[in-house]
């Protein structure tokens, strides 16, 4: 008798479990059915309406997050008359260096653009998505005055990129030292974003040079994020011994930065544009040592074992440029948010990372009120303001009065 009771109790319990699993699957309350943190937050827009409409659908009702339309900010012009500015580096609170795609490094002092360039990379090969691109200042710039630059050049009829280090005398950049070169490049997909990590290493994004398969080839430096020591040598703790490759499977990343405090590395990436895959599929990824981000094996919402899914996917394309975490309190609602420039999407994307979990994106939106055309570079200045550049003279948009510009986002 007791055995029978046990039997029916057991059967009932199993039935309860099965029912609970079914019901909870419907209502998404089964706690083990999915790891939310590993799921990408997709922005899918099959109707093909404008990015603005997509973003309007993306608003979060999570507590503690203030939508940008409720935040008091405005933009103010800083400099005009630039020619496809690509990267901004502050060397003091009042002096910034600006790279221009054709190969010039310009100087802005006290918000005034100096007429003469600080340096001209005479061998820079400038067209399309290539030219003089990323720059970075050494973390110890105040003692060594080292500036790093990444630019495209011709090598026996083929476009390549190289990473160089120069010393800033205040009136010139001198003593060029090549740190990395012969990186595959092309008119399109030449990467070339530079940034120093919290580990003191120099990170370099490279494009697939419009040759998709090299992104998966560990013997090629194309379609990668690279990591080198500031003197160009390869760190002993890189994932592939003797190689500068940090991660692979990238199509063309032009922006990355580290989440303040937790140092989680976020990167933007351009998705395919028709000739190399269905258009759209622009990505935001979290970059971790040795990982494979899939290109060209997967894109858009495709997944495959062993390949890392993006955190955000944007279709149609927004063409993400430079990315920066706002590690400033000037506009407190934006503190620790990720911002990236939108080229084709024309404006600025704001991404709110979950304060309790830096691997989770809580919300994203296109900032209202940024009507300046294509936006490429974004950087936080020593004054805590968010500086950004237009890229309307790059041949892909109408040129507006005074283009190209540097603007900054300031409290209203
Ligand atoms: Ca990917």
Outline the fold blueprint.
Elements: H1 2-27, E1 41-43, H2 51-56, E2 73-79, E3 85-92, E4 95-100, E5 104-109, E6 112-113, E7 119-120, E8 132-137, H3 141-144, E9 146-155, E10 158-168, E11 173-184, E12 194-196, E13 202-205, E14 224-228, E15 245-248, E16 255-258, E17 265-269, E18 282-287, E19 312-314, E20 320-325, E21 338-342, E22 347-353, E23 361-366, E24 375-380, E25 386-390, E26 406-411
Parallel strand pairs: 1-19
Antiparallel strand pairs: 2-26, 3-4, 4-5, 5-6, 5-7, 8-9, 9-10, 10-11, 12-13, 13-14, 14-15, 16-17, 17-18, 18-19, 20-21, 21-22, 22-23, 24-25, 25-26
The structure holds calcium ion.
Calcium ion binds next to loops.
First-residue to last-residue Cα separation: 79 Å
Number of helices: 3
Which CATH top level class of the largest domain fits?
Mainly Beta
Shape: globular
| Number of structural domains | 2
